[in-house]
Amino acid sequence: MKHRLLKVSAIATLILGLSSCSTLNDLVYRIDIPQGNYLEQRDVEKLRVGMTQEQVAFILGRPVAENAFDNDRWTYVYEMNPNHGDIYRRELTLDFNQGVLVDMFGDFEKSEDFDTPLDS
């Protein structure tokens, strides 16, 4: 009988201990963790076909992770892992041809003037 009571109390303690981990997780404050290049739509709207990589880097900065195998494609990734809530992720990929911007795609809208070079 004593052995059975000890088993039941051990199992009850284990169940309470494990269930408290999930509630403890909500009580502990964790900082928001931003990673990558934070970009704003207003900066992306300044991009134009025909810009050099240096001009693009002046506007957006260089991507945090550069591709060692393909210098003609820059990918900007930003991810925010908040304390509470969903993970926020945005991407922008820029394609260059011989150091000149030719296209962009991703989570940002192209400006109406994107296809108009600066020289025009």
Descriptive account of the structure:
- The structure is a single chain.
- With 120 residues, this protein is of the alpha+beta class.
- The protein has a domain at 31-106: Beta-lactamase Inhibitory Protein, Chain:B, domain 1 (2-Layer Sandwich), CATH 3.30.1450.
- 32% of the residues lie in helices and 25% in strands.
- The chain has three helices and four strands; from the N terminus they run H-E-H-H-E-E-E.
- The chain has a four-stranded antiparallel beta sheet, with no helix packed on it.
- A hairpin with a 6-residue loop joins strand 2 and strand 3 (88-97).
- The longest helix has 26 residues, at 2-27.
- The radius of gyration is 25 Å and the shape is rod-shaped.
- The model has no long low-confidence stretch (mean pLDDT 85).
List keywords for this structure.
single chain, 3 helices, protein-macromolecule adaptor activity, 120 residues, alpha+beta, Beta-lactamase Inhibitory Protein, Chain:B, domain 1, lipoprotein
